[in-house]
Every structure is written in C-alpha cells, then in structure tokens.
Amino acid sequence: MRLHLYSALALATALAWTAAALPKVSRTGRYLYTEDGTRFFIKGIAYQTQGQIVPGPDNPLNQPSTFVDNLADGNACARDLPYLQQLGVNAIRAYSANSSLNHDDCMHAFSAAGIYVILDLTLPLNGSIVTTQPSWSTNLLDQFLRTIDTFEQYDNVLAYNVGNEVMTSTTSEAAPFIMAAARDVKAYLNSIQSSALVGYAAINGNDTFVDNNAQFLACDHPDGDGGAIDLYGLNDYQWCGNASSDTFDSLNQRFANYPVAAYFSEFGGENCNPGVRVWTEVPVMFSAPMTNVWSGGAAFGYFSAMSQGHQFGMATLSSDNTSITTDADFTNLVSEYTALGTNFPTTPPQSAQPKTDNLPSCPTGWGITASGALPPTPDDAACGCLADGLLCQFVPPTPDYTVVMGDLFGVACGLLANLGDTQSCLDVSADGVSGVYGRVAMCDPTIRLSYVMSQYYELEHGAEGACSFLGNATVNYSGKAGTGGLASKCIPSASVFTPSAPPVLLPVSATASGSSTAGTKGASINGAEAKTIWVGAAACILGTFVGAVMVY
C-alpha cells in the first residue's frame, strides 16, 4: 500500500493543532485512567527509525549506536500520520529524542490526532544506564531532565521510560540504578507538577527472572522515596501466528497482583511466519482476562528494521524519504486494530482503586543479582566543585568518549595500584550487587576519570608526563593539591533529594549526520548529546579536540 505524502487530509490533520488539550492520563493503583475516570488502554506502535548497529561483544543485544530523532522531523510525521490513523493507534513509543531540537510539528500533529507519546529518555552509547558496569551519574540525570524540560510543554506525553532491556537474563546488577533513575525522575516530575508517568521496558525471559525484576521495580525500597515505576512494560514476543488463546495464561497469573500499571511495551513475534504477522494476539490482549492485568500494548514496529532483514516493521521508506510503502504486516494490524475499535473494558472503575499506593515491602534474598540499596541522587553542584579543583583533567578526544574511557580507567587504576593506592578507584566505583557506591561514583564519567588521573599525578609529585595518559589529559594549573580531601569537602555525604533543573547547555557545533531530505537537518545524531558542553563549574574538562587544537 502506498500513498503520496502531502494529501490534503494529511496536511490538514498534521497542522490542525488546537488549544483543546488531550485528557491527562494517570495511574490509580494498577490501572490507567483519563480525567473523567475512564480506563485507558495503550493501543500503540513503536515509532523510531533504526540507527546504525555495530555488533560486538560489548553490544550483545545489538543496540544502535546512533539514532534519528523522528519527533523532530515535521515533514516525516506528516508523511506517516495518515498511516498511523489507518492503524487507529492512540499512542506511539519513541526510543530516543534530541532535547536541543524543535519537536512542535510532530507533537502538535500527533496531539491533534489523539496520539499520546511514550518517550524513552535514554540515548545510545554514553546516554543510557548500561547492562554491565552501570552508573547513575550527573550526565545521565541532566540528560534525562533536559529531555523532560523539552517535552513537558506538550499535552500528549503519556510516560517517560528510564530504560529499555537493561536487565538481562544473565545479570540484574543494573536494577538499583534503574530504580534510582525512576526515583529521581519521578521526584523532578512531581516538583514541576507534571502528570507524566515513569516507566521501564523489560526484556522477556524465564519466569523467575521476569517476575523478580518486575517486583524489584514496584516494591517499597527504603531509600526509594516512593520512586517505584508507574508503568511496567514487557517486550514480549511469545505469541506467534495463530497461537492458542491460552498463550498468555501463565504470564497473566504471575502478574495478577502486580501493584502498578503494566502493558506490552513491544509485541509482534516474527519467528513462525517472518514478514507476514497476523496479529491475532490483539483481540486477546484487549479483552478479559488479559485486561484484568494489562493495559494494552505497542506493536513493534512501524519502520522496518534494516539489521533484521526488514523484519519487525511494516513501513519502508522511499529512497528520498518522502513516501512510505506498507506491507502485509501493516494491512493485518489495521484489520485487527480496526476490529478492536475503542470499545475497551471500563472496569474496574477508578473509584474502586486505592487513593494512595500500597506497595509491597521489598523482600530479602532476591532471586536476582542486585542489592536493595539504591545509589544517591547525582549532585551537579558537588561534582562541579570537585571538577574545578582537580589537577589532572581528562580531555575527551571524541564526542563519544566511551571508546577510550574504559581503557583509560584501567590504565589509571593499574598505575595507582602499583603505587599502593586502591581506594581512589573504589571512590569512583558503583556496585549494584553489593549496594556500595563510592563517593565520586555519582559524578559524570569524565570527572570520575579526572579524579583517578589526579590522584596518580599527585602521587608522582607532578612529574612531567604524569598527566598525559597518551594525550588524553591535561594539567589544570588552577587546581588544588589534595584530591582525596577535595572530594570529602565537595561531597561530604551523598543523599537522596529532589533534583533541580539541569545546567544550561551551550552549543559547540551543529550536527547534520544523515538527515532526511524530507525532514529537519540535524535530526540524526551519534550517541548522547555529546557536541555540547554545560555552562558551570566543570565546563573546562568537557572541551573537544579539533585536530591539535582544543576548543571550549
């Protein structure tokens, strides 16, 4: 099926944003409700063009290393809106957005069409809590809050996700960091009187793994300050083809008493009939007994996944990106979503739900490798104080500093160990298994690396070359001796608090990587919003090398 981009109907709908706001959706107990008390179900689809994937041992799930901000491309949203309306969706899920770009055209057009947005706050590379060696630090918190500040002006933000498939079947050490992110994001949303929900999208796996991680995200952590997630998403592909209606029975039973709202953040198995999904799970998902437990789902996905041989998608872009060709997946989902309509169950009524959360206590002896102790709230002021005084400072050679940071940490910590200092690297470490978080672990990775480099530089008494690290560091002549004491002074004790607005970003250079001819230049970006520096105490360490000249 193929339609020309700029039909009169498409343009009229895309531009017809009015002052009439979409009704707010909130969670009461374990269900979602609109302002008039009607139960709300997510009838959605994933909406994100796949970025570049670099396979390797450090990327077991084949996550993209770049992304295209579809919500910043007004022409593309106008192109796609008629198809989304054919599907009859009331929500899309977007996996990354660039907070420095303008999203008015897309967000207003989707709002006018009655489409909510579930937005992941994460970015590829150094913009996410990672599965191995996770952290919850100032750079991530600031990035999350900037994205929130960018999107809070729109009435159709349903939820912000703090992670996607971070915990895997082999490790759950990132769980405390996910919970800390949910806690701090939720506190910030409450402070700005936002109605948006806080969510997480989990990978499916064996029953014990899924159940224990789900419980961890929705229990009453002693230092969680009410920060349990509002919306648990499960990326589930167990239904395939014309599966039996009892396929979800076990899952339903296991989540029968889950205390917060749950939905299928991705669904649509390909294995049994690649390229021709029949979507017969839809009527099952949106009727009892499933609706007693779940609040809908988002089909995966709108755009074809190039890395998967065009699987898991239903819309293929033309060579100039101005038009779309849909396939049988799309036609079949239109059929199922149309038959579904909007006649969702209305029970239980909102009035029957508890007015306040009654989260279960977190059990001891988890069946997952994670501590119940959560990391503290990252503190920009404290970390900036430390960064200002460090004598030897890391200078990222590329915007994606992750490519060198691991090796440099290894070198610096090895050198310190040879000199008898093992504490400095513990100061910058965070262990989600033991629940031990070093004093400096909440700071930006560049500050953490500068901290251990400075400790080595001081132990070598400022010897020439001791602050080189193969050209990745430079001496800060306005710094202060006594790195350990400086850390104690700047960060006397970590704590949990409501974060404030993040530091202001100052653009260094524009990006226009891979932008669509039908879209906004700069909508494609590599990794986190790396070509910016923040105006504040630590700005001096975030310079970028251009040839042999460092610019600030």
Automatic annotation (TrEMBL):
Transmembrane segments: 533-551
GO biological process, one term: fungal-type cell wall organization
Signal peptide limits: 1-21
Major place of residence: other
Molecular function terms from GO: 1,3-beta-glucanosyltransferase activity
Annotated membrane topology: Lipid-anchor; GPI-anchor
EC number: 2.4.1.-
Residue ranges of domain X8 in the record: 390-492
Gene3D superfamilies in alphabetical order: 1.20.58.1040, Glycosidases (3.20.20.80)
Location(s), subcellular: Cell envelope; Cell membrane; Membrane
UniProt KW keywords: Disulfide bond, Glycoprotein, GPI-anchor, Lipoprotein, Membrane, Signal, Transferase, Transmembrane, Transmembrane helix
Stored Pfam families: Glyco_hydro_72, X8
Gene Ontology cellular component list: plasma membrane; side of membrane
UniProt similarity note: Belongs to the glycosyl hydrolase 72 family.
Biological role stated in the UniProt entry: Splits internally a 1,3-beta-glucan molecule and transfers the newly generated reducing end (the donor) to the non-reducing end of another 1,3-beta-glucan molecule (the acceptor) forming a 1,3-beta linkage, resulting in the elongation of 1,3-beta-glucan chains in the cell wall.
Xref: PANTHER family: 1,3-BETA-GLUCANOSYLTRANSFERASE GAS1 (PTHR31468:SF2)
Full protein name: 1,3-beta-glucanosyltransferase
Organism, scientific name: Mycena chlorophos (Agaric fungus)
